Amino acid sequence: MNRYCFCLQVRPDRLDEYVERHRDVWPDMQAALRDSGWHNYSLFLRDDGLLIGYVESADLEAAQKAMAATDVNTRWQAQMTEFFTGIDGRPPDESFLLLPEIFHLKEDPQ
Q1: CA–CA gap between residue 1 and residue 29 (Å, rounded)
Q2: Residue 10 burial (CB < 10 Å; 0-12/13-18/19+)?
Q3: Distances in whole angstroms, Cα of residue 32 to Cα of each of 14, 17, 39, 99, 107
Q4: The pTM of the whole model exceeds 0.70
Q5: Taking the CA of residue 27 as centre, how many other CA atoms within 13 Å lie in the half-sphere pointing to its CB?
Q6: Per-residue confidence (pLDDT) for residue 107, from 0 to 100
Q7: Does the active-site annotation cover 22?
Q8: HEC profile for the chain?
Q9: At what angle do helices 71-80 and 27-35 cross, to 10 degrees?
Q10: Which among 3, 11, 22, 75 is annotated as catalytic?
Q11: What residue ranges define each of the domains in the chain, with the CATH number in brackets?
Q12: How far apart are CA 27 and CA 37, in angstroms?
């Protein structure tokens, strides 16, 4: 399983609404993510709008393509696009700035 970290920028004036939308992510969206190969997916949000995402996947590109083929993702991305800056009209899930992993503490080999 590979680890991926990405960032996006949420509009600072829309932070509260963005957080609220993620309190109850649609069950069919959550199922589609799981079925598409997204594991241990988390989002972290700084008070200036910097969004950091972490996900584990065997192949993130394949997982993204599988999600892009779902109707629920199309509906979700259409609603989420308005919350972001710097994505030039692309859906947020196609606008990730992937960050390179430079350190990972491995489990104790005992």
Answers
A1: 22
A2: buried
A3: 26, 23, 11, 24, 30
A4: yes
A5: 0
A6: 86
A7: yes
A8: CEEEEEEEEECHHHHHHHHHHCCCCCHHHHHHHHHCCCEEEEEEECCCCEEEEEEEECCHHHHHHHHHCCHHHHHHHHHHHHHEECCCCCCHHHCCEEECCCCCCCCCCC
A9: 120
A10: 22
A11: 2-99 (3.30.70.100)
A12: 16
CA neighbor of 53 nearest in space, from 41, 39, 70? 41
Check residue 89 and give its pLDDT: 80
pLDDT of residue 108 exceeding 90, the answer is no
Residue 93: both structure tokens together: 């899930």
> What is the tens place of the pLDDT at every residue in 12-63?
999 999 999 999 999 999 999 999 999 999 999 999 999 999 999 999 999 9
Note the pLDDT tens digit of each residue in 71-81: 999 999 999 99
Q: Are 54 and 46 in contact (CB under 8 A)?
A: no
